Amino acid sequence: MISPMNTAPRQATYEDVLKAPDILIAEILDGELITSPRPAFPHARAASSIGQDVSPFDRRPGGPGGPGGWQILFEPELHLGADILVPDLAGWRRERMPVLVDESFSTLAPDWVCEVVSPRTARIDRVRKMPIYARERVSHLWLVHPGLQTLEVYRLEGQQWVVASSHVGAEVARAAPFEAIELDMSRWWLEEAS
Fold it and tell me: I need a surface site. Which of 54, 72, 97, 178 has the fewest CB within 10 A?
């Protein structure tokens, strides 16, 4: 007797992530291994500048240099259920994550995530990752699109993302959850060649 062939796709594992070449960012979304090349300069510039801009929050509360109260990391590896995600930036309120432990990933969902969107990653960020962040109760999500020079700020209401604000170009923005400071978005974009 011939047994039926199993045609279900194999579920990716953390071993697949570990085997991915170092030059790629490896994630598992809904059981599928997704790899992406390192970001291009528009993406890297936006992520670096945003990290600098929100750094006053990455301090102990009441300390010098800013409002504090957050742990903010660049490209942390998140293990959220069976999914493994690597957002461009993520932050945890210190009351939820008082100290960073010496681990290579976090199983605690962040309170804020920033994804820098490129034409290649837009579908993944919007269609695949946003529902996972909602399922895991991430309170705030930023989608930054260097090509369009936009910032979309979302807040979670129930299980749905709601647009809290939108900003474009060289605006000076106040964006939740970091509305205590002004963000000079003109720093986020590549300068025009003269």
Answer: 97
User: What's the rounded Cα separation, in Å, for the pair 126 and 25?
Assistant: 17
CA distance between the termini of the chain: 73
Rounded Cα distance, 13 and 51, in Å? 30
Q: What is the pLDDT of residues 48-67, one digit of tens each?
A: 999 999 999 998 877 787 88
Domains of the chain listed by start with CATH number: 40-79+87-188 (3.90.1570.10)
Provide the CA 64 distance to its chain's centre, in angstroms. Answer: 27
Contact criterion met (CB below 8 Å) for 113 and 138: yes
* 71 close to 109: Cβ distance less than 8 angstroms: no
